[in-house]
Amino acid sequence: MNSKNKLILALDFGGTKHAAAIVHSGDRKWQKGRRALSPPFAGATVDREIMRSLIHQLLQGEKPGAIGVSFGGPVDATTGTVRLSHHVPGWENTPLRELLETEYGAPVRVDNDANVAALGEYRFGAGKGYESMFYITISTGVGGGWILNGRPWRGADGMAGEIGHIVVDPEGPKCLCGKRGCVERFASGPYIAQSAQQFLQQQPYRGEILRNLAANNLSEITAQLVSKAADQGDDIASEVLEVAGWALGVGIGNVANLINPQLFVLGGGVTKAGAKFWSAVRRVARKTALPEVNFEIVPAALSDEAPLWGAVALAEDLL
Amino acid sequence: MNSKNKLILALDFGGTKHAAAIVHSGDRKWQKGRRALSPPFAGATVDREIMRSLIHQLLQGEKPGAIGVSFGGPVDATTGTVRLSHHVPGWENTPLRELLETEYGAPVRVDNDANVAALGEYRFGAGKGYESMFYITISTGVGGGWILNGRPWRGADGMAGEIGHIVVDPEGPKCLCGKRGCVERFASGPYIAQSAQQFLQQQPYRGEILRNLAANNLSEITAQLVSKAADQGDDIASEVLEVAGWALGVGIGNVANLINPQLFVLGGGVTKAGAKFWSAVRRVARKTALPEVNFEIVPAALSDEAPLWGAVALAEDLL
Fold first, then answer.
1. Above pLDDT 70, what percent of chain A?
2. Does the pLDDT of residue A3 top 70, yes or no?
3. Between residues 144 and 163 of chain A, which touch chain B (CB distance below 8 Å)?
4. Confidence (pLDDT) at A5
5. Which residues of B touch A295 (CB under 8 A)?
6. What percent of chain B is modeled with pLDDT above 90?
7. Is the pLDDT assigned to residue B1 strictly greater than 50?
8. Which one of A163, A250, A293 has the shortest CB-CB distance to B170?
9. pLDDT score at B3
10. From the list A148, A170, A257, which residue is nearest B162 (CB)?
């Protein structure tokens, strides 16, 4: 095999952000990378065109030896077919692997972002040297990907890892999925922002720091702003993050009792919420798990690049 | 290998009940079997003596080719060392595999009862032909054992499967483990009986059928009696079983979202609680799982013999 065939192309189709990068197999530094945002109301065709353009800039006529793809939505990893995107219309039943194989003449593997990010952290990041881990992304949604016995575990329908939709409080507020009290309903970025907004409306004499940070425009509040306010000692922001950490902690403790993995790796924007959030997660997870069940909870090492590095791992297995 | 070496000895050390049986490898009918109860306040030494006597009656001088053991408590399956029994004192750090190998001169494999029963159902019972299943026993306690990719999954500390201690209601009643609202706190036999007793005390004008069945002696009420009363239309008994089914259903739905196995197999005394219990379990599990997550929930096929048949599977792998 000549060196040209060892060029790996890694692709990350997100809900609104897309990324592509190339690396020589075995290297742990990108040769080149490109990112782009979708225009508002883009569909699958536009997103594929954006990605084609990123790839064109990277490859400049070179041929990749293998392609790994992270996709932000349910995927049939066996066939490489996208089932749908929850954010972008037009992806239903797209044979993404086949399309890319035809276009670039190289073997392709496709999986959903949580599974791919889990693989990235396992092979190159916080999970290196472990045998069993659960990667959890806490961002716009809350999802996860499994490594068991050193290999991805996707479940019978490729649906494993949905920690965002396990119920931790049957009397809790209603989640988008229709149930009450899902982990995601307390811990995702948008729901953290929404809870803070509601508390501020209901309790006019509290949350001064957060109000000031938002210039009194409650609809401007984001999870990031809640984190910032909590860092500065805001009472409502701290409460909201405490509840988010509690929900995720119960979820993690339950998962520890059920599957007993060595390691939990947490990634996604909300994990940057600071020390209060992390200590709530760790304290509640430890309390929820049985005393005999051991585990560590650590931050993701690869941050936003976990899906791209996971795509490299997928592709390296094809070389 | 001669035919004598293919004789399998299967042992089941329970909390109070013990069983031993022999079978020729490949056969699916026991050659002989024996059962015995522990005397009250027995310890590990007495239980091992009881088992030795059962084995003696079965083998009558014959030598087994391999021995499989189900133990009712945490086990280090790699070394075959019992960590402890939650019911019987004196088992702490007993090298059970070593003891049996020395005594009977045959290779031995030991694992905890939930894992062994899961293996039994997978190899010979309700799980035949599936790749991924979760076996749940609902009895004095609530526990489970995993089969993933056609192999047992025990977790990093051998603690996987503890569905009894995942929290389904953080405001719920206190469980023996110290937390509130565990699955076991609602669904185990003793807690079903306890809940029924409490409701009858609090609501003197309800539960007539159950009261009559217990001859008004509330302390006599068992989960079995609650099931019987529910079958006859008792209001309180039906409510208690509905709550038990709800808790188990939430637990199963959560597990489906997390691991997405093909099949749930339910065994143990409480699963004989009748149609109301089963329909609550199935309805709530389906509602708790995401719509894209498919699974079946079926009764165990091997009943009380699941651990013994699982022990046969463990032993057959040694031949």
1. 98
2. no
3. 144, 146, 148-149, 153-163
4. 62
5. 156
6. 87
7. no
8. A250
9. 44
10. A257
CATH 3.30.420.40 residue ranges in chain A?
3-121+305-316, 128-300
CATH ID of A3-121+305-316, from 1.20.1440.230, 3.40.50.1110, 2.60.40.10, 3.30.420.40: 3.30.420.40
Please report which helix (H) or strand (E) contains residue B146, including its range: strand B142-148
From CA A191, how far away is CA A204, in angstroms rounded? 20
Q: Which one of A254, A264, A292, A296 would you mutate to disrupt binding with B, by most B Cβ within 10 Å of its Cβ?
A: A254
Give the CATH class of B3-112+305-316. Answer: alpha beta
Q: B240-297, pLDDT tens digit by residue?
A: 999 999 999 999 999 999 999 999 999 998 998 888 899 999 999 999 999 989 999 9
Q: Percent of chain B scored above 70 by pLDDT?
A: 98
Integer Cα distance of A280 and A242 in angstroms: 6
Is the CB of B259 less than 8 angstroms away from the CB of A168?
A: no
Chain A partners of B175 at a C-beta cutoff of 8 Å?
Answer: none
Mean per-residue pLDDT of chain A: 94
Among B162, B248, B287, which would you mutate to test the A interface (most chain A Cβ atoms within 10 Å of its Cβ)? Answer: B162
pLDDT score, position B5: 62
- Nearest CA to CA, how far is A160 from chain B (Å)? 4
* pLDDT surpasses 60 at A1: no
- Say whether A292 and B148 touch across the interface (CB within 8 A): no
Q: Do B288 and A258 touch (CB under 8 A)?
A: no
Query: What span, in angstroms and rounded, lies between the C-alpha atoms of A256 and A282?
Result: 12
Query: Around Cβ A247, how many Cβ atoms within 10 Å?
Result: 29
> For residue A99, what pLDDT is reported?
97
Testing the interface with B: which of A78, A259, A284, A293 to mutate, by most B Cβ within 10 A? A259
CATH 3.30.420.40 in chain B, residue ranges: 3-112+305-316, 126-300
B288/A167 Cβ within 8 A: yes
Instruction: Count Cβ neighbours within 10 Å for each residue of A134-163 and write b for 16 or more, e otherwise.
Output: bbbbbbbbbbbbbbbeeebbbbbbbbbbbb
Burial class of residue A264 in the structure, from the number of CB atoms within 10 Å of its CB (0-12 exposed, 13-18 middle, 19+ buried): buried
| Best CATH choice for the domain B126-300 from the list 3.40.50.10330, 3.30.420.40, 3.30.70.270, 3.40.50.10440 | 3.30.420.40
* Residues in a beta bridge with B11: B20, B69
B61 touching chain A per CB within 8 A: no
Among A159, A260, A288, select the one facing B160 at the smallest CB separation: A260
- Residues with Cβ within 8 Å of A78's Cβ and at least 6 positions away in sequence, in order, are none
Contact A132 B260 (CB under 8 A): no
ipTM given for this complex: 0.90
Q: Tell me: domain A128-300, CATH 3.30.420.40, correct?
A: yes
> Which candidate from A74, A148, A254 shows the least CB-CB separation from B166?
A254
Does pLDDT of A4 surpass 50? no
pLDDT higher than threshold 50 for residue B4: no
Q: Per-residue pLDDT for A2 more than 60?
A: no
